[in-house]
Amino acid sequence: MSENVTTAVFEQWVRGFADLIAANREHLTELDAAIGDADHGSNMDRGMKAAVAALDESRPPTAGALLTKVGMTLVSTVGGASGPLFGTFFMRMGGSLGATAETVSAGDVAAALRAGLGGIVDRGKAAPGDKTMYDALAPAVEALEAALTDQATLATGLKAARDAAAAGRDATTPMLARKGRASYLGERSVGHQDPGAASVALLLDAAADAAS
Ligand code: ADP
Ligand code: MG
Q: Which CATH architecture has domain 5-211?
């Protein structure tokens, strides 16, 4: 399978993610109010609106350069944990794809997501089960890799990744937070969905939509 994933697909992914974040801004903030400081929705919305504005100003020609630009914009506009973490995720994806690569395959997309996940771990040191965005993203990356190994198309693989991210998000509810602000609550973090994991589920929703 040698699909060429166009830069327009990545642009649609970023714009679709920004739309979903805007639509879910209050919900994300409510999740963060329960176990954090009630700013996750506004953090993500500010960052993704800035990312879209940066693309409106000039759209880089390649997927790698586009994702790097989105990541740099997130790092520079979002305070809090999620700006550097999502920013690093997008920058590592961009680095994995390469700024000058003209064509991107489905396998390249999976490798880029894997690199982005590695960036989040390098930056935040989250382990599985710590109740973070990692717990939604890691199963999504695994689901995409497994689907592509089974010769699925990118569209089908990203649908599996979307479902895995949603399940991973839901699985954070009973977890005890061990990273970030929620960890200060100890046992009181149990029984609440992690806001960063909820944002990752939206990220994969947007990816599945962009590729379909
Ligand atoms: P802050 O916690 O600084 O207010 P946000 O509210 O925007 O930032 O983001 C909180 C989210 O960041 C959490 O729900 C969690 O998913 C994620 N997070 C926090 N710390 C880490 C970490 N060390 N590794 C991975 N994700 C983390
Ligand atoms: Mg917060």
A: Alpha Horseshoe (1.25)
Q: Ligand 1 pocket, 135 CB below 6 A?
A: no
Q: Which protein residue's CA is at the shortest distance from atom 11 of ligand 1?
A: 196
**Which ligand does the CA of 38 lie closest to?**
2
Q: Convert the pLDDT of each residue in 44-74 to its tens digit.
A: 999 999 999 999 999 999 999 999 999 999 9
Contact 81, 181 (CB under 8 A): yes
CA of 159 to the centre of ligand 2 (A): 29
Interior/surface letters 144-167, b for 16+ CB within 10 angstroms, e for the rest: bbebbeeebebbbbbbbbbbbbbe
Residue whose Cα lies nearest atom 7 of ligand 1: it is 40
pTM of this structure = 0.98
Q: Is the CB of 180 under 6 A from ligand 1?
A: yes
Nearest-Å Rg of the Cα atoms of the chain is 16
Q: Kindly list the domain boundaries of the chain, sorted by start residue.
A: 5-211
Residue 172 Cβ contacting ligand 1 at under 6 Å: no
Position 2 scores a pLDDT of 63
| Weakest-pLDDT range from 52-56, 78-82, 175-179 | 78-82
